[in-house]
Design goal:
Layout lengths: L4 E4 L4 E4 L2 H15 L7 E9 L2 E10 L5 E7 L8 H14 L3 E5 L4 E7 L2 E5 L5 H4 L2
Parallel strand pairs: 5-6
Antiparallel strand pairs: 1-2, 3-4, 4-5, 6-7, 7-8
Length: about 130
């Protein structure tokens, strides 16, 4: 049995076409359409929080290389709920981003930092808006 794969343009390699990976690759396309330069995105970005290693699904960087947004992708059918938001917030404790984006492919939630809190945003911003 042959495993289906998808090409990840950020990792520059074929990866297993899991349901979550399909959502991740779809959202990379969404970000690209929002004018996020591919060279300022990373998929499966590793980090350490406490003694644990974590991987953010997609990171978007500003032009100076500082993390700007973290995207948490879930497979279709998984609720984009408080648990998913908590996972993204753990990543934020390491990354200190301005944007949190949660998606399962059919529902996408966007949050923008306002001081010490994240407020819901009613749209996915273009890259230039993200950097303001």
């Amino acid at each position: 049995m042959t495993t289906q794969t998808l090409y990840d343009p950020l990792r520059r390699k074929e990866v297993a076409a899991t349901p979550e990976e399909k959502v991740r690759q779809w959202f990379i396309g969404v970000l690209t359409a929002s004018h996020v330069p591919a060279h300022l995105m990373m998929s499966e970005a590793a980090m350490t929080f406490g003694a644990k290693r974590w991987r953010a699904d997609i990171l978007v960087y500003d032009r100076s290389g500082k993390p700007l947004a973290v995207v948490e992708c879930k497979r279709p059918g998984v609720d984009v709920d408080a648990g998913v938001a908590a996972q993204a917030m753990r990543y934020n404790m390491v990354l200190d981003v301005q944007w949190l984006i949660l998606t399962n492919g059919s529902r996408t939630l966007v949050f923008r930092r306002n001081g010490d809190v994240f407020a819901s945003c009613d749209h996915l911003p273009e890259y230039e808006e993200m950097t303001c």
